[in-house]
Structures are given as structure tokens and as C-alpha cells.
Amino acid sequence: MELSLYDIIRGPRTTSKSYDLNQYFKQLVLNVHPKANKRLVVEALKKLFNVEVEKVRIVVRKGRKRRVGRFATVGALEKKAIVTLKGDQAVNLGVDAPVAYSSEENARRSQSEEQR
């Protein structure tokens, strides 16, 4: 099965942890195809975004086993790639910070931004 560039990289992973990795360590966290490997991810990033990749780490999360009555099912497999780019390169994936703050925290943050 031949994977296209758009099949390999399914999109950005939008979680607080992935946002923090992007902000502080300049790493991208991407959802990738379950059959994609490190080499395919590097090639896809080079061709799609014209960036140089320093390191790729792949994490596989197997589906959870669930039971519904007497029937057992297994959830879908998830695969993500944590990509470190060389130098000061960046890729804008159009993802803003996920909002995971309480209303009190949002009020405090907006107040501190107004003071700046």
C-alpha cells in the first residue's frame, strides 16, 4: 500500500502537552498513519513544509479493550510523531493554545496582560 504525503501526516495533535512542547522545546506533535515510520514522516515534512528535521520519535497507543455485554471490542490504534526541527525553523499548523484554564485563571491572565 502506497501512502501519499497527506495520508502520512493526518494533522496536528491539539493537547496542552503538545502545545507546551511546541512553545518551549520547538517540537511538533503530529497524528500520523499507523503504517508510517520515521523515514516517511521526515520525507513528508520535507516535501510539504520545506523544513529540515533533526529527530523524530514515534509513539504508538494501542486501542483499549472494551466489553459491551458479551461482546469484546478493541478501540482504534493511535500513532503520533514528536518531531524536533533543526535550528530556528518553524511550521505554522494553524493551531492556537488549547483553552484548559478555569474561569478564575482566565480572569487572572487577562488582568496580567492588561497591566503589560
Sum up the structure in keywords.
116 residues, alpha+beta, Alpha-Beta Plaits, two-stranded antiparallel ribbon, 4 helices, 6 strands, flat
Encode the helix/strand succession as letters: HEHEHEEEEH
The CATH architecture comes to 2-Layer Sandwich
Can you tell me the CATH superfamily?
Answer: RRM (RNA recognition motif) domain
Q: Total helix count? A: 4
Structure explained in plain terms:
This protein is an alpha+beta fold. The protein has a single domain (5-115), classed as RRM (RNA recognition motif) domain (Alpha-Beta Plaits). Helix content is 34%, strand content 30%. It has helices spanning 5-8, 16-25, 38-49, 103-115, and strands at residues 9-12, 27-32, 53-61, 65-68, 71-74, 78-85. The strands form two sheets. The protein has a four-stranded antiparallel beta sheet. It has a two-stranded antiparallel sheet with strand order 4-5. A hairpin with a 2-residue loop joins strand 4 (65-68) and strand 5 (71-74).
